[in-house]
């Protein structure tokens, strides 16, 4: 499972760093390296492009995994170069960008150099397919391990629409119909009768609609999810 990223247009990046003369660049040695968007080669290339535009680069590094606690150690080791910078350009996924900002404690701006596209699996060398939206109410047990929320163009939960043809989605002959895949898998495993069950209206309350989700790991129960509690507000004038 990898976070798939795409490098932002250089014009957008230059808008972010317009007011910054000194920049420090941070890449990620895991997903962004795999996607060729924020590994060593891409970070060095970005350094050259920034310098060609008149910017000064105080330093650069590729953190092995930018989304975990290795970030804190890396920032401490590169503290001198980081401190000299007016801003940080993070060529990592969105989690890495936020993690870097948290560890820097908002002392200077952190700008994303990549767009985070989706979470996917490598189904063939160098090719990734989105498989999960992290909706927090998984139906894979009923749909033969195919997520209709992601794989179906209309995110249908109770069978296919009328637009598919020869096992392909109506949006493109190159896109398999998710419900055809589900049907075939249920047939192969002798579970076709399960398609007769009606999936109730999806509860989006456990997804991001309730604000940023949080989770506490419990030794007995695993992880317990909760939404962020709203900050208390005063009604006094």
Can you describe what's shown?
This protein has 237 residues and is of the alpha/beta class. It contains eight helices and nine strands. The strands form three sheets. The chain has a four-stranded parallel β-sheet with strand order 3-2-4-5, with helices on both faces. The chain is elongated.
Offer a quick outline of the entry.
This protein is an alpha/beta fold and 237 residues long.
CATH architecture identity of the largest domain: 3-Layer(aba) Sandwich
| CATH fold name of the largest domain | Rossmann fold
Task: Please state roughly what percent of the residues sit in beta strands, choosing from under 5%, 5-15%, 15-25%, 25-35%, 35-45% or over 45%.
Answer: 15-25%
Please tell me how large the radius of gyration is. Answer: 22 Å
How confident overall, as mean pLDDT? 88
- SS field, number of helical segments: 8
Distance between the termini: 51 Å
Structural class: alpha/beta
How many strands, which pairing sense, and closed or not: the largest β-sheet? 4 strands, parallel
Question: How are the strands of the largest sheet arranged?
Answer: 3-2-4-5
Order of secondary-structure elements: EHEHHEHHEHEEEHHEE
* Shape field: elongated
Top CATH class of the largest domain = Alpha Beta
Q: At the fourth CATH level, what is the homologous superfamily of the largest domain?
A: Response regulator
Give the low-confidence spans. 227-237
| Strand count | 9
The domain count comes to 2
Helix content: 25-40%
């Amino acid at each position: 499972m990898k976070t798939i990223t795409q490098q932002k247009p250089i014009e957008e990046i230059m808008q972010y760093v317009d007011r910054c003369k000194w920049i420090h660049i941070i890449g990620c040695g895991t997903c962004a390296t795999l996607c060729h968007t924020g590994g060593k080669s891409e970070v060095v290339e970005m350094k050259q492009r920034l310098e060609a535009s008149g910017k000064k680069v105080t330093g650069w590094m590729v953190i092995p995994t930018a989304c975990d606690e290795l970030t804190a150690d890396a920032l401490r080791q590169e503290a001198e170069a980081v401190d000299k910078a007016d801003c940080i350009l993070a060529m990592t996924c969105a989690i890495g960008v936020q993690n870097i900002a948290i560890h820097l404690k908002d002392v200077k701006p952190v700008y994303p150099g990549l767009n985070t596209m989706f979470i996917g699996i490598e189904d063939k060398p160098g090719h990734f397919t989105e498989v999960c939206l992290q909706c927090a109410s998984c139906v894979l047990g009923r749909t033969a391990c195919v997520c209709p929320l992601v794989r179906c163009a209309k995110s249908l939960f109770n069978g296919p629409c009328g637009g598919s043809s020869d096992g392909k989605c109506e949006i493109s002959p190159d896109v398999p119909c998710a419900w055809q895949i589900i049907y075939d898998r249920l047939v192969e495993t002798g579970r076709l009768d399960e398609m007769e069950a009606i999936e109730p209206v999806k509860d989006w309350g456990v997804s991001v609609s309730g604000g940023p989700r949080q989770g506490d790991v419990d030794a007995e129960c695993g992880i317990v999810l909760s939404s962020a509690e709203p900050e208390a507000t005063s009604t006094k004038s």
